[in-house]
């Protein structure tokens, strides 16, 4: 039975965040799981991708190992009742379905924010982890490099990756634009709920900024700050921190404005102070713009920018899908030829074995010059004999009719015996 490429997927499309965070795998867990899959099941061409939106395992094996792999995740995560989560996993046991899914994930078609730019780097890291353990064979190497090439085509030929398509990323992009002339801008993020946390994680695109975060629940701010390498302050110190910040991002739930015009008027603003209100309802009074040096952007301003970009990305989806289709067709042409390569090599070996045996039989008394001439002639004859069957076999691949021809060649030349003898 031939190995098939398969996939197991738990994503934002099948599971809420409270389930995804339970199943999510860190780097150490991914390494451990890869080793277990190699040792326990001898799987090949394995890829494990774990992000905030998905945990997926791709692997090549003759058998469907989805239940066993999900149980291994349970062991790795210390979840005794992993069976309760099986309904959240989607299983791809068809080779083409698994490959198509990996392409779509890698291009950002399956992301929460369509065209998410981070996913391509996450896929590259997953591939590197596999390569480091020598768990990628010719199949996966070729597949991944086809995906990387496809990603370049998408970037170069479409508008699919242009601009910011999420509110949080659009906010960070806006801050980057407005602070471009400020050396190491001081950014204060108030509130690390869902959108605040997403903004914090997008701050990686501002490597020179000095970021401080605060939250009513101090422990939550501490955990995020430690993960991202940011400073953290207690919520009661937020007023002093606002005075010192160049950029203040507010993402808190409050019925009344948290940042008022009267408060902002007390600040010393030598150049500018940028406020970004990501709260709904709004947590910053719009009248603060009356204070000299103050700039204010709210979630509606930013969302309109993100929405326009998202529309452009969605319009580019058919073009992206066409590029993916072309890449998968090219990959399958290679894959089909790979399937017949062992038979072609056995056929070549069989003919070479006959040639060498006959050379040894009839040239015992020949001199070196005669041997060289006959060696050249017989090699040329062998190449001509090989040419037609090899061309026909590769052509049969493209028609998905190679199996019969491979069987015929194997029987005619007893290739299994030749292989065993060799």
UniProtKB/TrEMBL annotation:
**Keyword Lipid metabolism listed:** no
* Domain Glutamyl-tRNA reductase N-terminal as annotated: residue spans: 8-158
Q: Does the keyword Oxidoreductase apply?
A: yes
Q: InterPro entries, from UniProt? A: 4pyrrol_synth_GluRdtase, 4pyrrol_synth_GluRdtase_dimer, 4pyrrol_synth_GluRdtase_N, GluRdtase_dimer_dom_sf, GluRdtase_N_sf, NAD(P)-bd_dom_sf, Shikm_DH/Glu-tRNA_Rdtase
The enzyme's first-digit EC class, named in words, is oxidoreductase
Q: Where does substrate bind?
A: 51-54, 116-118, 122
Q: In which pathway does it act?
A: Porphyrin-containing compound metabolism; protoporphyrin-IX biosynthesis; 5-aminolevulinate from L-glutamyl-tRNA(Glu): step 1/2
The protein's matches in Pfam families, at most eight in alphabetical order, are given as: GlutR_dimer, GlutR_N, Shikimate_DH
Give the reactions, separated by semicolons, that this protein catalyses. Answer: (S)-4-amino-5-oxopentanoate + tRNA(Glu) + NADP(+) = L-glutamyl-tRNA(Glu) + NADPH + H(+)
Which keywords, in A-to-Z order, does the entry hold? NADP, Oxidoreductase, Porphyrin biosynthesis
Q: What is its EC number?
A: 1.2.1.70
- Pinpoint the Quinate/shikimate 5-dehydrogenase/glutamyl-tRNA reductase domain residues: 174-303
Q: Where is the signal peptide?
A: none
> Which residue numbers delimit the Tetrapyrrole biosynthesis glutamyl-tRNA reductase dimerisation domain?
319-415
Show which residues form the site (Important for activity): 101
Q: Which NCBIfam families match?
A: hemA
**Miscellaneous remark of the record:** During catalysis, the active site Cys acts as a nucleophile attacking the alpha-carbonyl group of tRNA-bound glutamate with the formation of a thioester intermediate between enzyme and glutamate, and the concomitant release of tRNA(Glu). The thioester intermediate is finally reduced by direct hydride transfer from NADPH, to form the product GSA.
- How does it associate, per the subunit comment? Homodimer.
- What's the stated role of this polypeptide? Catalyzes the NADPH-dependent reduction of glutamyl-tRNA(Glu) to glutamate 1-semialdehyde (GSA).
Per the entry's comment, what about the domains? Possesses an unusual extended V-shaped dimeric structure with each monomer consisting of three distinct domains arranged along a curved 'spinal' alpha-helix. The N-terminal catalytic domain specifically recognizes the glutamate moiety of the substrate. The second domain is the NADPH-binding domain, and the third C-terminal domain is responsible for dimerization.
Q: What is this protein called?
A: Glutamyl-tRNA reductase
